[in-house]
Amino acid sequence: MQTYHTKEAGTYQHNLYPDERGRFGPFGGKFVPESLMTALSELEAAYLDASNDPGFQLELQAQLSTFVGRPTALHYVPRFSQMVAPNIKVYLKREDLAHTGAHKINNALGQGLLARRMGKKRIIAETGAGQHGVATATVCAMLGLECIVYMGEIDIQRQSLNVFRMKLLGAEVRSVGSGSRTLKDAINEAIRDWVTNVETTFYLIGSAVGPHPYPRIVRNFQAIIGEEARKQVLAQEGRMPDMVVACVGGGSNAIGMFYPFAGVLDVQLLGVEAGGTSLEAGQHAATLVAGRPGILHGAMSYLLQNGDGQVLDTHSISAGLDYPSVGPEHSYMKETGRATYVSANDATALRGLQALSQSEGIIPALEPAHALGYLLEMGNRREIPEGSLIIVNLSGRGDKDMLTVAQALNVTL
Ligand SMILES: *Cc1c(COP(=O)(O)O)cnc(C)c1O
């Protein structure tokens, strides 16, 4: 793994985490049934072995280049910059140009190659909106691996196009009818499958969440985003940015962008969560802004929960941000103050999407539109100094969201 130039900031030394117990300060860890502890240790050993194997790195690099289409561009958007504030520069990291239209493929590819190396031919995954299911099915088809995707019954109805994509790619989609019939029930079902079939099966987790070592593995496979952006901004502007901004669902695109910049303390890190329709319980997915620490899906992290510790329902106009917890490393970055987390509501995200589309000819996904919309709000509040250099992680393209956007704008198609 790469080491980054790190300045000490009090007790904060970013590249020390996670520790050997998989903790980021008090967050993270492995809160799983006994029967999975061996599987997690085996995964950790295989990952470390692969990280140190030049052959594995070479194959990963080759596939990132010709299959995924990396490096993705760092693109200056002058007309959008002008809409935010006078005399500033906004650059977009174009993950929307990666194969399948979002950053999720970086991680799916890395874990897919790891599974094959471990001799596991059966891949399971779970998906809410279907984006991670599509990325996983895509990689499994390319590598010739069996792919089973768990998905809540309600999500299957809402996301029929992605269900069809996964099937075309050769994956089996298993409907989950328990609980709220959405993502968190699909995750429970995937964990159950893993416990039963752990010998033959690799659980391909789609964000920087879950028990150790997943948050670390996903971060490191997504860190290619920030590594490229660092080199590109130095080449194009000759200096580090003042701020990097990313949307936060589970937190994988954000941590992939933040991590390579985290040791450069002059770079402000801003994560934007989904503020939904309001910050009342059940109407948003702003976990770090409005949650409290708790345990879900194998890790200690911020969590949206009621007074009894029951997980709350979430809402967001963007299905990809609709998750009641968040990666443990973000919880730690919030606690240490290294990164700042805010929320943008549905309407702000829609404005961000429209603004970028009309000023720059790029239709973003609704998830990164939260980051774009929040920047516009900061500009209105005169919070962005002249001369600022800002990078926004454009985590995906908007094609998948066109029906949702039309509905929100009261347009009938
Ligand atoms: C899934 C998704 C997200 C949210 O997931 P993170 O793990 O927080 O990155 C953000 N943007 C897009 C385009 C997505 O598909």
What does this structure look like?
This protein has helices spanning 34-51, 54-68, 78-84, 104-117, 131-143, 153-158, 160-168, 183-196, 214-222, 224-237, 252-258, 287-290, 328-336, 346-360, 366-380, 402-408, and strands at residues 23-24, 27-28, 74-76, 89-94, 122-127, 146-152, 172-176, 201-203, 243-247, 268-274, 292-296, 299-303, 339-344, 389-394. By secondary structure, the chain is α/β, with parallel strands linked by helices. It is built from 16 helices and 14 strands. The strands form 4 sheets. It has a 6-stranded mixed β-sheet, sandwiched between helices. The chain has a 4-stranded parallel β-sheet with strand order 7-6-5-8, sandwiched between helices. The radius of gyration is 20 Å and the shape is globular. The protein has 2 domains: 24-65 and 104-218, Rossmann fold; 69-101 and 223-408, Rossmann fold (3-Layer(aba) Sandwich), CATH 3.40.50.1100. Bound molecules: pyridoxal-5'-phosphate (PLP). The site of pyridoxal-5'-phosphate has 19 residues, from helix 11 and helix 15.
The CATH topology of the largest domain comes to: Rossmann fold
* Oligomer category: single chain
**Strand numbers in spatial order across the main sheet:** 3-4-14-9-10-13
Mean pLDDT across residues: 95
Cα shape: globular
Percent helix range:
40-55%
Number of helices: 16
User: Biggest sheet: strands, sense, closure?
Assistant: 6 strands, mixed
Radius of gyration: 20 Å
Domain count: the total is 2
Cα distance spanning the termini: 49 Å
Q: In percent terms, what proportion of residues is strand?
A: 15-25%
Element order: H for helix, E for strand: EEHHEHEHEHEHHEHEHHEHEHEEHEHHEH
Which CATH first-tier class of the largest domain would you pick? Answer: Alpha Beta
Q: Which CATH architecture of the largest domain?
A: 3-Layer(aba) Sandwich
List of distinct ligands in this structure: pyridoxal-5'-phosphate
Low-confidence stretches: 1-12
Kindly state the number of beta strands: 14
Structural class of the secondary structure composition?
alpha/beta
